[in-house]
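Subject: Protein record for review, amino acid sequence with backbone structure tokens
How to read it: Take the token row as a discrete description of the fold.
Enclosed: The protein record, placed directly beneath this head.
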Amino acid sequence: MSKKLFITTDTQRDWLQKLEKYEDTFKSYSKEVDETAAFPKANIQALVDIGYTRLTLPKEYGGDGIRVTDMILFQETIASFDSATGLSIGWHQGVVGELYEKIIWKEDKLRTFANEILNGALVNRAASEAQTGSPTRGGRPGTSAVKRGNKWIISGQKNFTTMSPVLTHFLVSAWVEEKQGIGFFLVNRNSSGLSIKETWDVIAMRGTESHDLVLDRVEVTEENFVEFSFGPRSSNINGWILHIPACYLGIAQAARDYAVKFAIEHSPNSIHGSISQLPNVQRLIGQMDLELMKARHFLYSTAAAYDDLSRRPYITNELAAAKYIVTNSAITIVDQAMRIVGAKSLQMSNPLQRYYRDVRAGLHNPPMDDMTISKLAQTAINEAENQ
């Protein structure tokens, strides 16, 4: 099963050719990145240098104005080279895409920040906290923003700040008492009182260095109070979040490719030919490709529906379902790949053990599986009651 079926434009072909030049380089860093839990700075800088990080910026702001379908194609490709690089840069691509598609900020701020992006700025949201869990569940941030004169004073601590070593800007959520709601503030990395607390010590996506962001009375100007809402952001339809399942699809593809190559080349003396001729191995290969087809078709179909403005209003839970289907399929695919390769897949030198750990991180990216299933049920019930 190949993503080639979904390549339909010259822009996609051109960018895939650019990205594929980095396949060997990105892959060569993956083992070291994982073992040392060190952020792949060189990979990210390479993507900045070729203009990748401006792709989701609209053309009227100096970017390339790609669609969600384009983004997931590219993100899947990068993640198949290196998962930490794929997930990390995906957050920047998704945040920029959403900000400018929905015109969330005032025009002058959008233009000012667009210039920053064109000059290499990298941004991610900082919304998760230890006490509230995933922000999509609607918890009130412990981080607070208090108005003092013409500035806001922000204090608190955020976790899971992916790409923290190289981010130039953070979109920080904070509780605004005087407004009784949640505000997002654009905070510059060089702000006084801002620091990174190195807390990232996990078995999956180790290279993302998703450390804690600490804000100790950080001053932010009024113009950088850029968003406000009374409820969780999960209620919004945001196709740019599909960069998450695209990442795990890329990892699954890499695992499948490794296992198939291994099956073709591995020829123990107990059989004639390679293990690729064994019925049980062919069954596993067939099952992997079936899972890839299911996941990829659903993901790309959902992205296409989102990109089509005439169809977008009919989207209900497809975005969340895409993440659910792709992530769980990716976990299954990696498991099947390891069954083909056998005990060798458990060796630390083997990439499959890294894929096995990394795909499980998808279960903890938003939205969570239980929320997706619950919303599907609620939608079905509401539709039936309103008929």
Notes: The CA atoms of residues 171 and 186 lie 5 Å apart. The longest helix spans residues 279-307.
